[in-house]
Model the fold of this input.
Amino acid sequence: MSVSSDAKPVRWWPLYTIAALVSVTLLIIWIPDWSVLFLGQILSTVGISLIGSVLFLLWFFLFSRLSAKIRLRGLVFYVLLIGFMVSIFRISGLTGDMVPNVEWRWSSVSFLTTGQASGIINIDYPQFLGPKRNATLSGVELESDLVQHPPKLLWRIPVGEAWSAFAVVGRSAVTQEQQGEDETVVCYDLLTGEKKWRHKVKARYETPMAGIGPRATPTISENRVYTFGGTGILSCLVIRLKRRELALKNGV
Done:
């Protein structure tokens, strides 16, 4: 005499379908050489990953036909995994391509400080949007009460027209300016505003809609300053580093 069982077999085909669709979609996103659309690839990957994760959870808990004991264990494992990941990792920000900067929670934190004798800043900002191109300096300690302790103006000077921001290494702040018919790369002392050097080329960008002056922010890498002018002039200025200061070789 046989005994029939009411237990239904596990429904695996939705899981296989989800995995196949996610894999094919990711291949479509990443196989073509879309380097100019890298940000779009990142955002698309994040979206597909989130959708795939939600579909997996729906399958596991609602449509898989797994036993209640297995689903309960899966829920406990899922909660513990999230708690473990949150406890050991932190996201300090995003890069310019929207890639998270994942760090250990116990990693050392640097602070923005100024030495009393030398006045050297310990954190550089060498390119547009900062070291990781996310407009963030991790671990910088700022005054929490700006009413009781307002920030102090260090210096103010007239500058040429432009849309460029500053690239900073040590006490040197480098930017671009339009000065008459000359497009210039200028280096200022970060703490005093004193002009340290400048490099100029005969070029002027001006349109009624966009205004006057260069548009890009300089980039400092090792012993070079890279600039891109409003008229399309790409320059590489060789510098010499001394005590984290920048000095243009044969500069004006």
